[in-house]
Design goal:
heterodimer, A: alpha/beta, Rossmann fold, six-stranded mixed β-sheet, four-stranded antiparallel β-sheet, 7 helices, 10 strands, globular, B: alpha+beta, 2 domains, eight-stranded mixed β-sheet, 12 strands, ATP binding (chain A), ATP hydrolysis activity (chain A), AAA+_ATPase (chain A)
C-alpha cells in the first residue's frame, strides 16, 4: 500500500494581476493533502479562491509559489508538455457550464482526451467513448450534438469525458451548479459512484452545502486561506 | 490530428469558403501576373522578330562586285544555308520589280514592296505562316516562287501572282507558296532569289545585297562578321561594308521589364491582401474559439498541439487552395496561347477550312523538267494533307490496310491541297 498522498500542497500561494496593475492574492499559503480514493469538498463564497485552487491542483495554472506534488513528485519542474500529458492521463475535469465543444457530437467530446493521449485507433476510441456514455446512461445519444442535449445530459457527457481516460483524480468545479435539484442529484450520484467503485480521488468545488456534505472531507476557503 | 484539423475546416463552411476564395484569388492573380508578364514578353519578342529580326539580328550591307552569275548566287545561298555562327539570309536589291494587277477597269503595274530573298529569312525574321508554305531551299524550287503577306493577298489569283518590271511589257506569273503574317501593313511579296535568277533572268538586275544574320547564342557578333567576310571572300562576291544591329530589342526590353515588374508587384500586393485577410480571419477564429481551446488544454492538449490544430487548418486550406490555383493556372497557361494572334499551330486549323485555291483552278506557271520536289521542313504544307503524290498514295495504302477494305475504290477520296505542288 502506497502511503504517500496523491496530492500534497505545501505553502501554496497564487496571485492574479488586476486590470489596475495591482495583484490580488487568490490562494494564500495553503497546505493540504488529498489521499487516494477519497472525496473532498472545497467550499467557499464566490471569489474566495476555490476555482483558483482547483486550477492549480489540476495543473492548469503554474503561476504559483510553494510546492505542489503528485505521488511525491514536485510538479514545479515539469514542462508544459509534461503537465499536459499528466493531465491527460491522470486528471479529469468537470466544469459548471458543461464545457462541451459545440461542433463535436457527444461521443466525439468524450473521445477528445483519448485522442490527445494518443496511441489508440479511432475505432477503439469511439467504442470506449460510447461505453463511457453508456456508463452515464447516454449511449443512445452518442451521435447527438451538445445543442440537442439537455443541461443534465450535457453534464453527464462532461462526466463521461472526464472519466474516459480512467483518471486518478476528478476535479469538479460546481458540477451541479447549473442543474435543477433532481438532475443535480443524479449527476452527484454518478460522481460518488466513481469514488466508491473505481477508487477515484474526487475534489469537489462547490458552494452547495448539501453536495459538500456527501463528501468524506470538507475544506473551507476564504480569501484564499484554507481552513 | 488530421481528423481534428479537417473537422475544424467544417465548423464554419461559409468562413472557410470565403477565406479559400480570397486566397485563391491572390494566388491566381500572382500566377496570372507572372504568366501575363512572361507571355507578353514572348509575344512582343515574337512581334519584334517578325518586323526587325530575332534578338540580336545584324544587318550587313555588302559591297558587291558582281551577282550576275547564277552559279555565284547559288553558291552564296548554299554557303549561307550552312553558315555556322548563326542563321544568315540574303536580301537582294532589285528596284524595278512590281506586280501586274487590276485597277478599276484594266490592268496596270503596281509598285509594292518586293523582297528578293531566300528560305533562310524565316530563321532570322520568323513570321507565322497563315496558309501554305514558305519559300523552298536553294536547290529545290522548280518554278518561280513567291510568298505574300496578308495585305498582298489581293494580288493573288488562282494561286499565282503576276510580276512585272517598270518600263517593260513582260508579265510573268509566279507561284504563290503561301501567305505569311509578317506584321507589315502594306503589301509585301517575297520572291525566292534563286528562282528569280533561274526562271526570269531578264529581271535579275541587282543593285546591292544585304545579309541579315542572327548569331547563335553566345557567339560574338564580331566573330560572325569575320566569318561572313570570309564566306563572301570565298564565294568571290565582295565584302561587308557596313555592319549594324538591326533589331530594336533595346528599345522595348526596358518597357517590358517595367510592365512585368508592375504586374508582378500588383499581383503580390493582391496576394498580400488576401494573406492578411486570412490571418485576420484566423485571429478572429482563435478569439472566438478561446473557450474551446481552454477546454482542449484542460483535456490534455499541449500548447504545440493547440497551435498545430489552429495553424494546421489554415495550412491545409492553403495547400488545397494552392493546388486548385496551380491547376487553374495550368489551364490558363494552356488557354492563353489560344488568345494570342495567329501562330503556325492555329493556322493549321484555318488551313483546313479556308481553301481558296483548288487543284483544278490552279494554273501551271513555267515548268522545269525537274521532278516535283517536296516542300522542305519546317515550312512544309500541312502534314495531314501532303501535296506529294507518292505520300498521298502511301496514305491511301495505309488506310486500306488499316480498314481492311477489299475494294480500292472504296478508299477515302483524295483531299485537295491548298497550294499543290507542280
Amino acid at each position: 500500500m502506497n502511503d504517500t498522498p496523491l496530492i500534497r500542497l505545501d505553502h501554496l500561494s497564487a496571485k492574479v494581476r488586476l486590470p489596475d496593475g495591482g495583484r490580488l492574492t487568490t490562494v494564500n499559503n495553503v497546505s493540504a493533502s488529498f489521499e487516494r480514493g477519497t472525496s473532498t469538498a472545497i467550499v467557499g463564497k464566490s471569489g474566495s479562491g476555490k476555482t483558483s485552487l482547483a486550477s492549480i491542483i489540476g495543473l492548469l495554472n503554474n503561476d504559483y509559489s510553494g510546492t505542489l506534488s503528485y505521488d511525491g513528485r514536485d510538479c514545479a519542474a515539469w514542462s508544459d508538455a509534461d503537465r499536459s500529458h499528466f493531465r491527460c492521463r491522470h486528471i479529469g475535469f468537470v466544469f459548471q457550464n458543461y464545457s462541451l465543444i459545440p461542433h463535436l457530437s457527444a461521443w466525439e467530446n468524450v473521445a477528445l482526451p483519448l485522442q490527445y493521449r494518443g496511441g489508440t485507433p479511432m475505432r477503439t476510441i469511439r467504442r470506449r467513448a460510447v461505453r463511457m456514455l453508456h456508463t452515464v446512461g447516454l449511449a443512445k445519444r452518442a451521435d447527438s450534438m451538445p445543442s440537442r442535449l439537455s443541461g443534465g445530459e450535457q453534464q453527464r457527457v462532461a462526466i463521461a469525458r472526464a472519466l474516459a481516460t480512467d483518471p486518478d483524480l476528478l476535479i469538479c468545479d460546481e458540477p451541479t451548479g447549473a442543474l435543477d435539484t433532481e438532475t443535480g442529484d443524479m449527476v452527484a450520484a454518478i460522481l460518488f459512484r466513481q469514488v466508491q467503485e473505481l477508487g477515484v480521488t474526487l475534489i469537489l468545488v462547490t458552494h452547495d452545502p448539501q453536495l459538500a456534505a456527501r463528501c468524506e472531507r470538507r475544506l473551507t476557503i476564504d480569501r484564499g486561506k484554507l481552513s | 490530428m488530421i481528423r481534428m484539423i479537417v473537422k475544424d475546416l467544417r465548423i464554419n463552411p461559409l468562413r472557410t469558403s470565403l477565406t479559400a476564395l480570397s486566397m485563391f484569388i491572390g494566388i491566381v492573380a500572382l500566377i496570372a501576373g507572372v504568366l501575363v508578364g512572361t507571355l507578353g514578353r514572348d509575344y512582343l519578342e515574337a512581334v519584334n522578330a517578325r518586323l526587325s529580326g530575332k534578338t540580336p539580328t545584324y544587318s550587313a550591307i555588302i559591297d558587291v562586285r558582281s551577282l550576275a552569275d547564277a552559279r555565284t548566287t547559288t553558291t552564296l545561298q548554299e554557303r549561307l544555308t550552312t553558315f555556322r555562327p548563326g542563321t544568315a539570309s540574303a536580301q537582294y536589291h532589285l528596284n524595278d520589280l512590281a506586280v501586274w494587277a487590276s485597277s478599276g477597269g484594266g490592268m496596270e503595274i503596281r509598285h509594292v514592296t518586293i523582297v528578293v530573298t531566300d528560305a533562310e529569312r524565316m530563321g532570322v525574321m520568323p513570321a507565322p505562316i497563315i496558309e501554305g508554305a514558305w519559300l523552298n531551299g536553294a536547290d529545290e524550287p522548280a518554278t518561280l516562287e513567291t510568298v505574300v503577306n496578308e495585305s498582298a493577298r489581293q494580288y493573288v489569283h488562282d494561286g499565282t501572282v503576276t510580276l512585272a518590271r517598270t518600263g517593260n511589257p513582260q508579265q510573268v506569273p509566279a507561284r504563290v507558296n503561301g501567305v505569311v503574317a509578317d506584321g507589315a501593313d502594306e503589301p509585301v511579296i517575297y520572291i525566292n532569289a534563286i528562282t528569280l535568277q533561274r526562271y526570269w533572268p531578264q529581271a535579275w538586275a541587282t543593285d546591292g545585297l544585304t545579309i541579315l544574320v542572327h548569331p547563335e547564342k553566345g557567339v560574338d557578333d564580331q566573330h560572325v562578321k569575320t566569318a561572313l567576310d570570309d564566306l563572301l571572300s570565298d564565294v568571290g562576291i565582295g565584302s561587308v561594308s557596313s555592319w549594324n544591329r538591326s533589331d530594336n530589342a533595346g528599345d522595348y526590353e526596358q518597357v517590358i521589364g517595367f510592365l512585368r515588374l508592375g504586374v508582378i508587384v500588383t499581383a503580390m500586393l493582391l496576394l498580400a491582401v488576401s494573406a492578411i485577410g486570412m490571418i485576420n480571419i484566423g485571429l478572429a477564429g482563435i478569439e472566438q474559439r478561446s473557450h474551446e481551446l481552454l477546454i482542449r488544454r484542460a483535456l490534455g492538449a499541449t500548447r504545440a498541439s493547440i497551435a498545430m490544430q489552429v495553424i494546421g487548418s489554415s495550412v491545409l486550406l492553403s495547400l488545397i487552395i494552392a493546388f486548385a490555383a496551380v491547376l487553374i493556372s495550368a489551364a490558363l497557361v494552356w488557354a492563353v496561347p489560344w488568345m494570342l494572334p495567329p501562330t503556325r499551330r492555329s493556322n493549321r486549323r484555318r488551313t483546313r477550312t479556308r481553301r481558296l485555291w483548288s487543284r483544278q483552278a490552279h494554273p501551271s506557271p513555267p515548268r522545269s523538267s525537274a521532278p516535283s520536289p517536296r516542300p522542305s521542313k519546317p515550312y512544309d504544307c500541312n502534314p495531314r494533307w501532303p501535296c506529294d503524290d507518292s505520300i498521298m498514295e502511301g496514305l491511301r495504302v495505309k488506310t486500306w490496310v488499316l480498314t481492311r477494305f477489299e475494294n480500292h475504290a472504296a478508299l477515302p477520296a483524295r483531299q485537295p491541297c491548298l497550294f499543290p505542288m507542280q
